[in-house]
Amino acid sequence: MAKSNAFKLAELIRVFQYNTVSDEIETEKKTKDKNKKSGDTTKTATTEFNLDTFAHASFRAARYIVAMSEGSDFHSTEIMLIHDGSSVTLTSYGTLKSSSALATFDADISGGNLQLKCTPASSSSTTIKFDRIVIDA
């Protein structure tokens, strides 16, 4: 059975609350944003792979928070990058490790996409999770 527009609007209103103290609209529901993305993968090889890609014509800069785990070892870092349409400048900072680095990162442009590349340091099962925010071009 198709849902009416009135029903859809009522459902939308139901999940938002107005906080009169902070003058903010709040929700407990997860929201989508074209400029945000999360992802995760598990790798068992030390070969470079594309952790994430996005259309470089649409976005000029990106910030990643990356968290990795391999057994009882953990590694987290923030990555900032910017591009000019043909080359990418990348920096990692705020890096925390329980022992040695679990991966290294690089980026390039291939065709219409910017690619964030990741190379795990071990062939043991390494889980890599990220949150990304991009800035429009």
Describe the structure.
By secondary structure, this protein is mostly beta strands. It has one domain (35-136): Immunoglobulin-like (Sandwich). Helix content is 7%, strand content 61%. The strands form three sheets. Strands 3-10-5-6-7 form a five-stranded antiparallel beta sheet, with no helix packed on it. A three-stranded antiparallel beta sheet has the order 4-9-8, with no helix packed on it. It has a two-stranded antiparallel ribbon with strand order 1-2. The longest helix is centred in the N-terminal third of the chain and has 10 residues, at 5-14. The protein is globular. The model has no long low-confidence stretch (mean pLDDT 93).
CATH architecture: Sandwich
Q: Sheet with the most strands?
A: 5 strands, antiparallel
Topology as H/E string?
Answer: HEEEEEEEEEE
Contiguous low-pLDDT stretches (5 residues minimum) are: none
Number of domains: 1
N-to-C span: 41 Å
What class, by secondary structure content? mainly beta
β-sheet strand percentage: over 45%
Number of DSSP-assigned strands: 10
Strand order of the largest sheet: 3-10-5-6-7
CATH class categorisation:
Mainly Beta
The chain-level mean pLDDT equals 93
CATH homologous superfamily designation = 4-oxalocrotonate tautomerase-like
CATH topology, by name, is Immunoglobulin-like
Coarse shape: globular
Round the Cα radius of gyration to an integer and report it. 19 Å
